[in-house]
Write a structure and sequence with these properties.
single chain; about 150 residues; mainly alpha; Arc Repressor Mutant, subunit A; 3-stranded antiparallel sheet
């Protein structure tokens, strides 16, 4: 791709991504306002629901933040009743974090709301374009994974 062509593409992406984010947030999560949950807390809850539990080091690594930043987020989530800490069996130094029933319920409601919003939008786009979109997203994920592994 010629430099001018990629520059034009990047410019268009710079315009579209904020618009998409803004429109998605406006459509969406009533859960956020009602339960006073932040976007980083959503990321943590999604990880915890996928894995059931996670230690602080892995949580920080997955979010690309420092362990102290992850600890601060988790502490606020503990106070809100969204997560709980558990000691690992024999080695009491290992602490894992797990979503509480409240945290699990909130994130499942949010995922359901998000899925309904995506279904509403993509139902207006033909099947071939949806498949192209998924193909492109998968390619982007592979490129990013290769970059982070290399």
């Amino acid at each position: 791709m010629a430099k001018r062509e990629i520059d034009t593409f990047c410019q268009k992406m710079d315009e579209l991504i904020p618009r998409l984010r803004k429109k998605f947030l406006k459509r969406g999560p009533v859960v956020l306002a009602h339960d006073k949950i932040t976007v980083p807390q959503i990321f943590i809850l999604e990880l915890l629901v996928q894995r059931e539990s996670c230690n602080m080091g892995n949580l920080a690594e997955d979010l690309s933040i420092s362990t102290s930043a992850a600890t601060g987020l988790v502490n606020r989530m503990l106070k809100a009743g969204l997560v709980e800490r558990m000691r690992e069996g024999k080695d009491r130094r290992i602490v894992k974090v797990k979503a509480t029933k409240k945290g699990d319920t909130i994130i499942k409601r949010l995922i359901d709301q998000r899925r309904r919003a995506v279904m509403e939008i993509f139902s207006k786009i033909n099947r071939q374009d949806r498949e192209k979109y998924i193909d492109i997203l998968e390619k982007i994920c592979r490129i990013l994974e290769e970059k982070s592994n290399g």
